[in-house]
UniProtKB/TrEMBL annotation:
The protein, known as: Tyrosinase copper-binding domain-containing protein
Region named Disordered: 416-437
Occurrences of domain Tyrosinase copper-binding (ranges): 141-158, 286-297
PROSITE patterns listed in its UniProt record: TYROSINASE_1, TYROSINASE_2
Gene3D superfamilies for the chain: Di-copper center containing domain from catechol oxidase
Amino acid sequence: MCDTGAVSLSIWCAVLACVGSKQPCPISVFEKPEEVLACEQRAQNEPVNQALASEACLRTYFVNRLTANPMLPEDYAMLAGFAEKKFGKNLPPSGYRVRRDIRVLSVTERHKLFRAFNVLYKTGVLARFGRLHGIQTLRKHSGASFLPWHRVFTAAVEEKLREIDPEVSLPYWDFTMDTYLPLPSESIMWSSCFVGNGNGTVLEGPFRNMYGGLNTLIERDIAQNGTRLINKDDIDKLMGLCFYANITTGNDPNYHQKVNNLEVLHDGVHDWVGGDMSYGEYASYDPVFFMIHAFIDYIWEQFRRRQSSSMCSVDVEKDYREPKDYAVDNVPGHAPWDEMHGFEYLQNHDGLWRNWTTAVYGYEPAPKCPKCGNSENLYCDMNVDQRRPEGVCVTKTRFFCVDPPLNDFDRNTSYEEPVGGGATVIQGTRHNEPPEDDRTRFMSQKEGLAIVRQQVGQVTPSLQSVS
Ligand SMILES: *[C@@H]1O[C@H](CO)[C@@H](O)[C@H](O)[C@H]1NC(C)=O
Ligand SMILES: *[C@@H]1O[C@H](CO)[C@@H](O)[C@H](O)[C@H]1NC(C)=O
Ligand SMILES: *[C@@H]1O[C@H](CO)[C@@H](O)[C@H](O)[C@H]1NC(C)=O
Ligand SMILES: *[C@@H]1O[C@H](CO)[C@@H](O)[C@H](O)[C@H]1NC(C)=O
Ligand SMILES: *[C@@H]1O[C@H](CO)[C@@H](O)[C@H](O)[C@H]1NC(C)=O
Ligand SMILES: [Cu+2]
């Protein structure tokens, strides 16, 4: 079955042989698991290259068995610091802060942010949050606690940034401004002025040469066919609703078919960025994660304002989902009184307190025409969106990035110490895409090979649980 002659397939075969047979590697024969055969069969009805599809099926098999890096004692020690200060119950030590789109920051503000992120990276703090997020794939995703937990998680990272530099606040990335470009992949976001390149290993910009959760340099693979960002129409649809239950995930296996689900829309952004960002287990090692989540949180905040208005008259501190409808398959962790994992002195419904955005942080409104925040990275376009005759702010492209050199920290070489911890292969889940996303889950050959090489080097006893 493995004798196709293709080099790539023989690597797959070697890996699968090790996994399936529990014998020492290398072994030349293996049985493809049922799940892979079924996937290949589905692919036969698709107009795709069958060899690549077959490889992608194998890759998906592996990816679904990736597990998050385990938490380390130092990670718990850091979280104990939040518990000690009762972060969120008490005013934050570093004071109230205001979040803005990253493209309206001054160059100096941007550089202060990048320096703070680099300090958090070098001191291993970013990886601690990466691991904490990674182990919440089920308990804090695909369910009601998604929004409040990510609110606290993101605010905690922001607090750490401000311990480094009290003038920094976490910016958001308003990706609706990127959706107006013919090629959103050309947004100035993906330049060394902002978060660095989006194609492959991150080798440019302030986050270059950082290791992610797979113990390899962080990768992105932006704007793959079939993926899409959240646009202004998506947000308007959410704003037509009044209840928390209308925009969140409950016990509905088909929830990703819904157009109004903010979690599902957010999954689409993760998949649009691609690479490490596509996997819940590894997404939050890349600093862009926090700019994505700040904007998701900002959308939620706008929704909460509408809930509080006379249009809805809903008490945002009390409105949650109904019992038995907290999460897909009722997985535990999503009830209002369940703990905020990592921040156990808080419960999920504490993430609904109004004072998060009055006492801890707030949002400057997203850039609007005609000024677009006076940003040199944005422009006002009166014609690009017929439904919005007042004009919309649109991001400039990466060709407008004139990179002022950042020379006070050395990003030329990789750090020797990977900080992610040891990824192993057992089990995991993927993001679910919004309904309009028509992509198949087939990965590129290059991406597939990268994962296989990774796994070949990581055949550990835990692999035996796969078969
Ligand atoms: C926010 O409100 C909750 C509930 O009233 C309270 O317990 C908590 O201490 C408040 N947090 C801050 C930072 O004021
Ligand atoms: C990514 O894009 C940059 C700019 O176009 C290019 O120089 C670089 O070779 C690309 N990298 C990869 C891995 O394709
Ligand atoms: C993306 O998908 C569409 C529709 O499936 C197809 O027409 C188009 O050629 C694809 N583009 C690329 C770059 O693969
Ligand atoms: C919104 O949620 C409320 C409360 O759960 C429900 O009664 C209503 O039918 C929902 N509306 C829509 C459009 O889903
Ligand atoms: C980093 O690379 C730049 C451009 O190649 C070079 O000018 C600079 O001196 C390098 N910095 C260090 C610390 O090696
Ligand atoms: Cu998440």
